[in-house]
Amino acid sequence: MKKLFPKSLLAILLCCSAGIRVSAQERDTIPAADQPVGLNLPLGNAQPQQYEIADIIVSGTQYLDKSLLISLSGLNVGDKVVYPGGDQFAKAIQALWGQRLFANVAIYVNKIEDGQIWLEIELQERPRLNQFIFKGVKKSEQEEIIKKTGMRKGQVVTESMEQNAVGIIRKYYSEKGFRNAEVNVGERTDSGQTNATNVVFTVVKGGKAKVDNIYIVGNQNIGDTKLKKKMKGTKERTRLTIYPDYEPVWPDSADDRGDYWHTFGFLQPSRTLEELDPYFRFKLFSSAKFNENKYAEDKEKVISYYNTQGYRDAVLVRDTTYKSQNGGVNVSMEVMEGKKYYFGKITWKGNSRYTDSLLAKVLGIKEGDTYNQEMLQKRLLSSEGGDVGGLYMDYGYLFFHADPVEVGIHGDTIDYEIRISEGPQATIKEVRIAGNEKTNEHVIRRELRTLPGEKFSRTDLIRSNREIANLGFFNPEKIGMNPVPNIQDGTVDIDYTVEEKANDQLELSAGWGGYIGLTGTLGVTFNNFSLRNIFNKQTWDPLPSGDGQKLSVRISSNGKAYRSYNFSFTEPWLGGKKRNQFSVSFYNSYQNPNAYSSYIYGSTLNNSAFFKVMGASVSLGKQLKWPDDYFTLIYAVNYQQYKLKNYNYFNIPGFSTGTSNNINLKLTLARSSVDQQIFPRSGSNFMLSGQFTPPYSMFHPDKDYKLESIKDQFSFIEYQKYRFNAEWYVPLSKPMGSDNKMFVMKIAAKFGYISRYNNRTTLSPFGRFELGGDGLSNFAIYDRDIVSQRGYPVYYSSDPRSNSENSQPSGYEGFTIFNKYVMELRYPFSLSPSSTIFGLAFVEAANGYRDVQEYNPFKLRRSAGLGMRFYLPMFGLLGFDYGIGFDRLQAGNGLKDAAKFTFMLGFEPE
Predict the structure, then answer these.
(1) POTRA domain: which residues (predicted)?
(2) Which pLDDT value is given to residue 596?
(3) Most CB within 10 Å of its CB: which of 714, 768, 832, 891?
(4) Is domain 342-421 in CATH 3.10.20.30, yes or no?
(5) Which class would CATH give 427-497?
């Protein structure tokens, strides 16, 4: 056998008797020029001649189009080739090999006759991918990895493709903190498929790399602690060192445990940790996972922080990460701070609507203030309000633009000229609403402050968003507002988009209690009801809806012991033109206090005893324009009738059988500016109310007149009652993630007082305050204001040390004064309209008092604890709290007797 090494890129192999083959073995690159290619038989003294290609055939392929392969080779029937010695065959192999689809490429000369040559291109296709096999990888991670690699079934498997996938997988795990992840790849022939293979990735993730130390050099003016705080995604492990004779101490830095020397990118301890801490017992480490992407973001945050502190030339000179002694990651960063700058003179140009002095006041930056480019841009234009842009946009200047230009630098002082382009005032042209599949458009449109024909106002746009959210019919996270400016005619169209959410509620339970009889509850609340379509059967689904009205019906029974009926209807826009909220309600309840006892003990107890309550209410609320339009004034006329028979719950001599009537007028002044109802992030609620019965006793001309009979005194009840509630919602962090989650602080204060008009009558037990518990008490029966307190049962004494869970003591009639203070830290786990879930930590202080002489606003019961709230559209609010009453703590009993679970259903208790 003779081998040739031609000067061309590939050797041409010739075989005269059995055919000549030019081939390239399986490689990912073109064979080198000095690589021999086999020659089957000697050529003798054959001289190169020119031939015409008579025919070309392709063999060995299963999936690829043969005519396309011939075209890719560059060889065509009728072409002239030189054989042997021509370079057309080498070029053809190069072209086919470059497709990276084949494990072997060979060209045969099958026949030579009369100046013509017959060729055969023999190809061996690479195997195709049948499936991925992952080892050491979670199923959820597999889907992400496959998506990132771009590999797909049926794809030709090449070595470069596999190595590329290995690199992507390593990067994927490195970003998750597994910096030392090992990835191996192999192939497994699939016997069930022709020329198919399975690619097997074996991943050993190892432990997550954690940051042991962050070393920063070059920071002369800003300390390490402040800079590290800005690195939210890259945190050092927290070490707690325990000594046998000392309290735990928190070392501030590694330097507290010995002398270290380090140059950039390298740190060497002079002694081991055991030498530095001879009393070392163990160390606790907090989570400090290293993430490449977060680290890259944190480096930018460090420089951004420098810029906000006046160091506008600050740069990160270099940084490095390296393996620590503990197997974690050490981070070293070198910064160059540069000079600290200050604002100089700020002048205005182009402003005609507002004076320089007013704009300077809104900007709030004075000459000599620390230079902060970010703050300057925010004061000029911000979505949070209080900016110069907001001042202009609230008066229609939608096309407003402000360009701050540096006009002079004097040492460390920078002068600015703010060039303003006010543009024309934009008039609202069209307002479009989309996404309201259930709610009628007029219900949304009447809440909008952006009306066609009026000047554009950013404040009105934001307020419209709030009003739509507070309807409760739409997902507050999905409300969209998109102004579409038309510069040509100076107008703007506004597109609102909403997403309907389920908000009707159903309460259903049933049972059978033997002697007691049927027990259960059936309640339904339609929060988007339509009364005008009540006779239109086509709109029933299951009842007519879409007009924003509220209809609630509830029936509850506990057999012979208790039953109640409740009905209410609310029209938020009475007349349809103004926000006049009209409500009517009716309720009726019955209780037999001896139903259970008479069944157990027989006829020894009076089974004919009962307590009945019937009541109705009509109210009208009107939105005010002064002091601002967040205020509402509500008038309500209420009537309750109480019938008692052998009912001794109140422990009042002479008041166990009889009828009492309660006619009263209630005036409420309320202000609400919260951004949404279920999970408010900002705003406040205030409520001041006065409830008054007619002063019957004052109508008698005899000043010394006094009804002696309690029964007569309570025939028509008289009292005056005052309530004050205040709630604030304060965001403690910026919105996080796509769903805008954030920590929110709720602060609340509540006060109540009920009294007589004069001393001619005795204050009845109805309408008083009952404190403690979870608010699920029988307030509808006794007509009392239940003021819950987590961590405590219902209590009957003003003494914080008295917290018995037994029944009320003799002579208790309820409190006439109370005050309560609440502080809650809230965080949402889900803001989905199908299930809003948030957790909270709370502290509370409250107490009730029998009269003014006993009142002491600082004598309070205190508690603290944790809780969860679940808002499900079908069931309303569900929640539970675990509270510890500090005034219930007793020496030697621990928390067992001081802790209490409380629950809530359907509403947030007082």
Answers:
(1) 127-206, 210-338, 341-423, 427-501
(2) 62
(3) 714
(4) no
(5) alpha beta
CATH for the stretch 49-125 = 3.10.20.310
pLDDT tens-place string over residues 80-99 = 888 877 788 888 888 887 77
H/E segment holding residue 470: helix 458-470
Please tell us whether the domain made up of 128-204 is placed in CATH 3.40.50.300: no
Q: Which residues does residue 842 pair with via DSSP β-bridges, in sequence order? A: 824, 865
CATH for 211-336 is 3.10.20.310
Q: Yes or no: say if 699 and 760 are a contact pair by the CB < 8 Å rule.
A: no
- pLDDT computed for residue 248 by the predictor: 38
- pTM for this model (two decimals): 0.67
Distance of CA 540 to the CA centre of its chain: 35
pLDDT given at position 571: 95
Are 154 and 132 a contacting pair, CB within 8 Å? no
Q: Do residues 269 and 212 touch, judged by C-beta distance below 8 A?
A: no
- DSSP conformational letter for 764: -
Regions of the chain where pLDDT drops below 50 = 1-45, 240-286, 601, 604, 778-780
User: Cα–chain-centroid distance for residue 618?
Assistant: 39
Residue 340: per-residue pLDDT: 95
Question: Omega before 542 cis (within 30°)?
Answer: yes
Q: What are phi and psi of 139, to 5 degrees?
A: -60, -40
| Residues forming beta bridges with residue 125, ordered by sequence position | 102
Asked, colleague to colleague, whether 49-125 and 128-204 share their fold, the answer is yes
Partners of 83 in beta bridges: 49
Closest CA to 485 of 583, 375, 580, 397: 397
pLDDT of residue 739: 67
Domain definitions of the chain by residue range: 49-125, 128-204, 211-336, 342-421, 427-497, 768-909
Contact 195, 125 (CB under 8 A): yes
**Hey, what are 149's tokens?**
């690699």
Local structure of residue 668 (DSSP, 8 states): E
Q: Say which amino acid occupies 477.
A: E
Instruction: Write out pLDDT tens, residues 134-147.
Output: 887 877 777 778 77
Rounded-to-integer distance, Cα 67 and Cα 80, Å? 19
In the structure encoding, which two tokens stand for residue 447, read together?
Answer: 């809440």
